[in-house]
Specification:
Length: 377
């Protein structure tokens, strides 16, 4: 398959097409050629280049592409597939939802379809996109369907979309995302979304990250400290990796650290305020802002809640380690997303966490890639 990769980020969706999973190892999938990729964020684009050095990464605003440049990049051969999803923050049900320039970047996806005319496309975004409305009150998903079904008088795509939960595909995380599949209307292809991995047990948070060494608040480790993997998921994530990266924790102020020390697995803000009501904690520790799941400690025996760019911020969401008094490290977040330990991220700490939190989990991407490759590979 010849693939064009848009809004690639650090490459979570890319990973699913670039690699196959064979005998418990990630192996390069030679059937997939990523002709070029595009990412606007410099740190994410550099991370992509580190991990996929043979892919032509075009670091620029997608709006600046001209048709002549696109045709030069793709050459004479047919492009089989476009993958990627525009930035999702505008559609998220957490925080302020607004139909801003980022929310309208699906129009650039539409423009790329009109120039490249691939056989299929795979578009990913947060579930909140399904309920997002434009400035006229119309559902964005309806606008996407209408535009992508009728690119021009001759070209259009048959559209299907479904919300998939990463936990059903071997990812130790409850993470719902909407995936839109488009099949060019001149092709006689029937698409069925994968439903999940049959007979594969759900992986808990503890099973995913328990082999990673203990990190104190404010600390960082670059070594496994002779901790050995204890299950197949950990062995897959380790591969032949020798040195840890991105396994660091923030240093908290006294109030936050006290709250982190006292919250128990499965509890959060309301539990802490209950301790204040009981006199266990002083009034100064009462939490007056945030959602009920903020300052929450994760449960070890269940998959993790959704990883976001706030994966290390106790005040942002439920992200406190199940038995260590700190938020998740970026490497733990990457493990929970199903990035192997040898996958590199780039930039400052905020940029690294954003690259992890925004990504499509590679194992989920791999199942979609397998399904698409069976159809058009």
């Amino acid at each position: 398959m010849r693939i064009v990769d848009l809004f690639s980020g650090a490459g979570g969706l890319t990973f699913g097409f670039y690699y196959s999973l064979i005998n418990g190892e990630f192996v390069r999938n030679e059937n997939c050629e990523i002709v070029f990729a595009n990412e606007f964020d410099e740190a994410a684009a550099q991370a992509f280049c580190i991990n996929f050095p043979d892919v032509n990464m075009i670091h620029k605003n997608i709006k600046d592409f001209k048709e002549e440049e696109i045709q030069e990049l793709i050459g004479e051969e047919q492009i089989d597939l476009i993958i990627g999803g525009p930035p999702c923050q505008s559609f998220s049900t957490i925080g302020k939802r607004k139909y801003d320039d980022k929310a309208q970047l699906y129009n650039e996806y539409y423009r790329m379809l009109s120039m490249i005319e691939p056989r299929m496309f795979l578009f990913e975004n947060v579930k909140g996109m399904l309920s997002m409305r434009d400035e006229d009150g119309n559902l964005v998903i309806n606008d996407i369907e209408n535009k992508f079904r009728h690119i021009n008088e001759e070209l259009g795509y048959n559209i299907q979309y479904r919300v998939l939960n990463a936990v059903n595909f071997g990812v130790p995380q409850y993470r719902e995302r909407v995936f839109i599949i488009g099949i060019r209307n001149d092709l006689d292809i029937e698409w069925e979304f994968p439903t999940g991995l049959d007979g594969v047990p759900t992986i808990s948070l503890e099973e995913a990250i328990s082999d990673l060494p203990i990190v104190e608040p404010g600390g960082e480790l670059n070594d496994y400290l002779n901790n050995n993997p204890v299950n197949n998921y950990q062995r897959l994530m380790r591969g032949n990796n020798a040195n840890l990266t991105c396994h660091f924790s923030a240093l908290y102020g006294e109030k936050i650290q006290t709250i982190v020390n006292h919250v128990i697995p499965g509890e959060g803000k309301d539990y802490i305020n209950g301790l204040v009501d009981q006199g266990v904690l002083e009034e100064k520790y009462r939490l007056t802002s945030g959602y009920s799941n903020t300052y929450g400690r994760l449960l070890p025996n269940q998959p993790c809640t959704t990883i976001t760019k706030n994966l290390s911020t106790p005040s942002g969401l439920r992200c406190i380690h199940y038995n260590q008094n700190r938020g998740l490290t970026p490497r733990e977040g990457a493990r929970i997303q199903s990035f192997p330990d040898w996958f590199q991220f780039n930039g400052n700490r905020y940029q690294i966490k954003t690259q992890i939190g925004n990504a499509v989990p590679p194992l989920l991407a791999m199942e979609l890639a397998n399904q698409i490759e069976r159809l058009i590979g």
